[in-house]
Amino acid sequence: MQFEIKYSKHFDLLFHVLAYLKVDNASDLYDKQYIERMMNEKQGFYYDIISDINTLQDYYNQHFERLMMINFLPFHADSYDHMKTLFHSYEKYTSEDLSCFIEPFIKVLDKEMVFYFHYWGKLHAKHRRLRLSIEENLRDRLSKYSCIFRFYHKSVRIYLSYSMTRNGRGFNGIPSCFSADVPFPGRQEDAEDLFFQILHEITHQFTDELLRAHINMHDDSHMLSEKLVFLADYLLIKSIHKKDLDNYLKWAMNDKENVDEAKFLREFKVNEKMEKELIRLADKIVCINRTTV
Fold first, then answer.
1. Structural domain contains residue 1
2. Which of 23, 65, 143, 293 is 20 to 30 A removed from 43 (C-alpha atoms)?
3. Is the pTM of the predicted complex or chain greater than 0.85?
4. Which distant-in-sequence residues (6+ apart) come within 8 Å of 231 by Cβ?
5. Domain of 62?
């Protein structure tokens, strides 16, 4: 089973810029503390990114259902120029999208790149020892759940991002692998949360199909998709590697002190039909594990 762990400065440039853009849904990466930290790092670099991003903010939010693809197209890109080409050529963008958002957004990327690529290189070198430790830990953790990937006949490609301020991005647009981009943990002790976030992003890529409907960030479909993922991971962890369950419940409930399985099940309750589908799916995945050990 192939577990690929990657770093991408052009992908990170995108998320660095998105940390300045306020989005009115759960995909929002705006982070005032991150912006203040970057101001300290940018001594001697003069570009008013905030003013330029603010002019694009309304259009992005109004047309989010199309423009959100800027978060995912870089999974196909092997360079910065390739990423920009994908932004220009995505078939679902309208001519208005290109002129009102994509083209000025790329100009922001080009200007901010002058600072960020140099900064990214310093970060990447600084974290070398931590990177190696976290990568080793991740491969070990992922291998324990390899039955999931064998069931779907997919490899795993993970990007660790220095600039993503929260949550993560999962992408099912590459048929041969589960792809995800998640924040790089600043400390070794955060590696546990990192693994659960990766599992969460991967699980989205097969549980979202159970909804049999388009998922919209502005209605109940997004919340339902999140409940399905949390419940699916609960079922898989409990069956595959139960030692992880307490820490998973703490992460899912954002409560590092208490483990409350009953509260978790109330919080992420879905209708009976959906629950039965999840249980059947989890059983099929786990059966792969039983027949190969």
1. no
2. 23
3. yes
4. 268, 270, 275, 278
5. 8-128
